[in-house]
Specification:
Number of domains: 2
Low-confidence stretches: none
Distance between the termini: 59 Å
Strand content: under 5%
Structural class: mainly alpha
Shape: extended
Radius of gyration: 21 Å
Order of helices and strands: HHHHHH
Number of strands: 0
Largest sheet: none
Length: 128
């Protein structure tokens, strides 16, 4: 087996350090959220902490850029468990509410589409 060269090890350690910063931010946010009885979501607090670390210069963008890009590129994998969980709900449980669920899904989808279109249109007008 061929030994890894030093630059490869250095890149791997840099990637792992970036993952550590992201995890530390998230779990710190989770701890703070627990202390304030879940008033703010742990994920939101973790992102605020990461933002503060980046803005203060404690953490450099280069440290978290590759791990964050990797996670964003594979974001679809994080939705598979939720989708499978929803697909496995027996019809008998939701039969009384299926019209409400479908209506909520359709209306919220159209609302999001409209809102994104509205914001992009405003942004394009302001750029000109």
């Amino acid at each position: 087996m061929e030994q890894m060269k030093f630059p490869e090890v250095k890149l791997m350690l840099k990637f792992l350090a970036g993952i550590a910063v992201l995890l530390l931010s998230y779990y710190t946010g989770e701890g703070i959220s627990y202390l304030i009885n879940g008033f703010i979501s742990p994920a939101v607090l973790g992102m605020v902490i990461l933002f503060l670390l980046l803005k203060s210069g404690i953490t450099k963008v280069e440290w978290v850029e590759k791990p964050a890009t990797f996670l964003l590129d594979n974001l679809m994998l994080f939705f598979i468990p939720a989708t499978v969980g929803i697909a496995l709900i027996p019809y008998e449980i939701i039969k009384d509410d299926y019209l409400t669920i479908i209506l909520a899904a359709v209306l919220s989808s159209f609302l999001v589409l409209w809102l994104v279109g509205f914001i992009i249109e405003k942004q394009e007008k302001s750029d000109k």
